[in-house]
């Protein structure tokens, strides 16, 4: 069943794997994502993750800064 809001493709994507030992923690993160991102913007968290795991990236491909 499709969501009620209009469907559209985003301009980019990221893919990460999750260790089996971290599945429950990941599920909890997903369940609380809306509340979590009230405290920390997704862009800031993504940059932190990429930097901490030595992943090279071009900032022009990151999601826009939210105001």
Describe the model.
The chain is mainly alpha-helical and 67 residues long. It has a domain at 40-67. The chain is built from three helices and no strands. The protein has helices at 23-31, 33-39, 42-52. The mean pLDDT is 83.
Q: C-alpha Rg, in Å? A: 14 Å
**Low-confidence parts, pLDDT < 50 over ≥5 residues?**
none
Q: How many DSSP helices? A: 3
State which percent range the strand residues make up: under 5%
Q: How many distinct beta strands? A: 0
Q: Residue share in helices?
A: 40-55%
Average pLDDT confidence is 83
Label the structural class: mainly alpha
Tell me about the largest β-sheet: none
In short:
This protein is mainly α and 67 residues long. The protein is built from three helices and no strands.
Task: Itemize the secondary structure elements and their pairings.
Layout lengths: L22 H9 L1 H7 L2 H11 L15
Keywords:
3 helices, 67 residues, mainly alpha
């Amino acid at each position: 069943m499709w969501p009620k809001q209009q469907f559209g493709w985003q301009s980019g994507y990221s893919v990460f794997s999750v260790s089996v030992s971290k599945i429950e923690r990941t599920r909890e993160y997903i369940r609380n994502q809306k509340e979590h991102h009230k405290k920390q913007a997704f862009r800031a968290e993504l940059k932190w993750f990429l930097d901490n795991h030595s992943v090279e990236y071009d900032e022009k491909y990151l999601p826009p800064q939210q105001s």
